[in-house]
Amino acid sequence: MTQIHYPALDIPRPYGLFIADIRDRLDAKTALGLLEWRPDWCAAQFRFSNDHLDLGLPDLDFAAAAAAGIKTVVVGGAPFGGRLPPEWIAALAEALRAGLNVASGLHDRLHDNELLRKLAAEHGGQLFDIRGSRGLTLPVATGRRRRGKRVLTVGLDCAIGKKFTALMLERQMIARGINATFRASGQTGILISGGGIAIDSVVADFIAGAAELLSPDNVPDHWDVIEGQGSLFHPAYAGVSLGLLHGSQPDAIILCHEAARMHVDGYPDFPLVDIQTGIAQHLELARLTNPDVRCAGISLQLSQLPKADHAAALAAMEDRTGLPCVDPAITGTDRLIDFLLADSGSQRG
Amino acid sequence: MTQIHYPALDIPRPYGLFIADIRDRLDAKTALGLLEWRPDWCAAQFRFSNDHLDLGLPDLDFAAAAAAGIKTVVVGGAPFGGRLPPEWIAALAEALRAGLNVASGLHDRLHDNELLRKLAAEHGGQLFDIRGSRGLTLPVATGRRRRGKRVLTVGLDCAIGKKFTALMLERQMIARGINATFRASGQTGILISGGGIAIDSVVADFIAGAAELLSPDNVPDHWDVIEGQGSLFHPAYAGVSLGLLHGSQPDAIILCHEAARMHVDGYPDFPLVDIQTGIAQHLELARLTNPDVRCAGISLQLSQLPKADHAAALAAMEDRTGLPCVDPAITGTDRLIDFLLADSGSQRG
Question: Residue limits of the D-glutamate N-acetyltransferase-like N-terminal domain (chains A, B) (predicted)?
Answer without folding.
Answer: 54-131
